[in-house]
Amino acid sequence: MRQNSKLGGSLESFIDEDLIWAEIDKATDPDPALVRDILAKARERKGLSPFEAAVLLKNTDKDLDNELFSAAIEVKKGIYGEHPKLDAEWIAQIVRDVYDVASRKSGEIRRVNINCAPLDVEGFKTLNEAGIDDVGMGVLFGLFDPVFEVMGLLYHALQLEKDWGVGPHTISFPRLEPALGAEIAFNPPYLSSDHDFKKIVSVLRLVFPYAGLILTTRENSELRAELLEVGVTQLSAGSRTYPGAYSDPEFDRPDVQQFCVGDNRSLDEVIQSIVSEHGYIPSWCTACYRLGRTGKHFMDLAKTGFIQKFCLPNGLLTFKEYLEDYGSDETKRIGEEFLRNEIKKYIDPKQKKLVEDRLARMEKGERDLYI
Length: 371
Description:
By secondary structure, the protein is mainly α. It has 15 helices and six strands. Helices cover 51% and strands 5% of the residues. Strand 5 (212-215), helix 9 (221-230) and strand 6 (234-235) form a beta-alpha-beta unit. The radius of gyration is 30 Å and the shape is elongated. 18% of the residues are buried.
């Protein structure tokens, strides 16, 4: 017992040396069965008594120590969930869940892009058996010599062509941007200027004439406009880069986001720009994926130019659907005028009528119409 002048009373020490030494002596050279019983209890994640902790610490059996390590890993992962292993089947289930979601307007989500961690061979086989036969490739520019990176990308694509008869369906080329917890991201060792980056995109378009070139919102709106002209075919818009951001009204939070966003325009603003400044058709077409025009089949159609017979009308139809359900008043005004002008350009009267009929059906409420 000892006196505590501040509290004005006596306190008993909670470190009872005699008890601790007695339990240590009792725990010395423990029975393996007792050790395993304690490990089984530990896996229930309810904690252990001091004596049970002493048993595990005084054990000298290396095999039992390995069981201890495994139990500790299991409990940590079970509670904190740090970096769970997400295999191809988990990804497949998430996609099913996404496809089950329906909005109040156009309805279901029709296509999902998956950006997953590197897969093992079995993972790729699982996805292929599920019907995924397109492969995207890309480089995070800023970590190594950009010329070497482009060359490596090309050699990879050539190997795919050699082995499977088809190269990448899409190419992505993000530049390393400042990111929390990644010191190198604030000072990339191989930083490309905007001019050099534009050269990279132009060369990629020439090297991969039939692949989609994907541009993220890392870049600012002015540079994105330039890159759209020299080769980009797919754009991100309205991106938010941290968990929960799409439901967060204060979504621009550099303290938690994955990377800095350079183009903060909304999807509607980007659509207006694509139409009014570039004269391009914004397309949400998913027809090829849903009708089996993928992999080598798609590439054969693309290389002959035949795919344009589908891309143009389906692009117009999906743009019309966007305008009907999501476009702002100004975007609708610009978009409807654009659609009328595009329809006038049709040379084939049969296809023109086909598209006009579907556009009229959309105005009456039908959705998901494609060629």
